[in-house]
Amino acid sequence: MSEQTPPQTDQLQRTPPPLTAPVMELVGISKHYQSRGSIFGGAGERVTALNQVSLDFRRGEIFGLVGESGSGKTTCGRLMVGLERADAGQLVLEGREITALRGKDLKDFRRKVQIIFQDPYQSLNPQLSILDSVAEPLITSQACPASEREGRVLATLKAVGLSPAEDFAYRFPHQLSGGQRQRVAIARAMIIEPRLLVADEPTSMLDASYSAQIFDILLQVREKFGTTIALITHSLAAARYLCDRIAVIYRGHLMELGQAEQVINRPRHPYTQALIDATPKFGDCGDVPRYNALLQPERQATTEEAGCVFFRRCARAHLTRCSRQAPTWRRLEDGDMVACHYADGAPDPGPEIESCPVPGL
Amino acid sequence: MALLEVNHLSIGYQTAKGLLRAVDDVSFAVDAGQSLGLVGESGCGKTTIGMALMGLLPPNGSIVGGNVVLDGQDLSGLDEADLRQRRWRDIAMIFQAAMNALNPVQRVGEQIVEAILTHKPELEREEALHQVEGLYQLVGLPVGRMHDFPHQYSGGMKQRAVIAMALALNPKVIIADEPTTALDVIVQDQILKETKELQKEFNIAIIFISHDISIVSEVCEMIGVMYAGQMVERGTTREVLGQPRHPYTQALLNSFPALGGPRRPLRPIPGEPPLLIGRRFGCRFCDRCPVPASSCKLEPPELVQVGETHFVRCDNV
Lengths: 361, 317
Description:
heterodimer; A: 361 residues; alpha/beta; Rossmann fold; globular; B: 317 residues; 2 domains
């Protein structure tokens, strides 16, 4: 397996993909969940998973969606592949609104977007050989004649670094390590060459050496197939390594969006700053400044509905303004987007941009 | 003499395929107030060491060589009754996955009271309850939540409750096994900081088990890097992370993305760790090593001292 060590890529000067029309756009997407009420009556709590989220994913881009658990990032990924339906807003794939698709059109959409899940121990059918597992999408989508299936499977296994592919094809999931299983999951998603791959925390269950392997395979997949990848992760360090752009999300609200380096090196939203403060630093980390953006203990606020969602935890908040008025999602001078009244120290919010897909930065 | 000494410890599991040597010839020492991080990938034996120190190895596991000396007393010679007395009072453990470490049908405060009363039967219940209140304040939990059930706690709160339980009997040593793995970064950061403060305050020795070097580097003064049951490198955090000498440590460090500094390519470690059943010759890392010598396959490397407190199990240093 030594040949899957990546070539000494200068991926780190990876050129950002050209500014083309986005592969997928989310326009003002909202999603709420109603928790079950008590059996004695009384409605359950209404939980906002996503609130007015607008994003665009460009061709060949790796886009990072970063946030804590419960931030709505997984809901967002599930919406993008049609596993959930939005309560409001539009989902556009290659210029086509897909929320209302049915029948053949829906099937066609499903071919174009694929997802890999967090836990490779649960996402593969233990009774299917790797060959059968990876061939399944080919069969359901009738993408190629039966005679070519095995060849396509072997080629895809090779592409994700499982070689000799003939050897892996006849094994079963329990005979593989976590890292190998996750590669099978990637092969299974990539075999029908989707336009968009949603990777939901693909390495959080894996050891460091396997994570690095998966990261490099995602980079190679992008290189080889030109696939757009939406990486859902809680790790800013992983997002920095892999992504061209990063969006930070908190309790269903977008907080900040911009070029990866920019968001990490010059975070403008206090929540992004808090995430950076909390990430362990080690080795030749250079000078990562401390922002001390997190308020401790939290404020006991009651006006949350109207104000900023981060108000209770924000060390920088303006007591009256931030508790009463939600910040608009606005563009800063250098092109990054942020939802904070006081990003860049600006006392006044910039021009209002509401629920518009983010045009080319 | 250090508070806790582990000397040439070897641990085996009886399996259908033969004896699996999960831990092989591991030595380290930790003093009061010190913290040692055991780092390595899953299956490297780090949790097995923790379980052996607690005397909680599963029935098919046993210490097959070496010993554990706590405060001058050899723990491996104790019978179950003595061990039970020492467990939790002298050595406590913060278990991996706090959500599973608490009894779901008992109120959280009550579980800690029970732990205290088991070891100090002479105490009145009221007194124990009072102690638990103190523990709650110590770990930053609202005292009012003592009578809630575990499912009413958030992940971070459960972790704090488990830490409170570990502190309940003023142990000399705490083994923290992946205590923050299931938590978000912000909560993780807070809990690590609080753990560090508590450790200083009570002069506790901590053995911190994690697969994540970056976490260990924030919390521990000393690091032991484990690979396939052996400790391949050990030293102060500065020594091990500043001048890693073992190829595995170097490879592990190269496979973590960093938040700052230049964006350098990651180098995944190719291949898989070896199986630990049956006889093994030579160095365990040599199949994956970027710089193997021909002799590495034949002779197992010895632990070599390369600095004041810095040891490496590699012949090519």
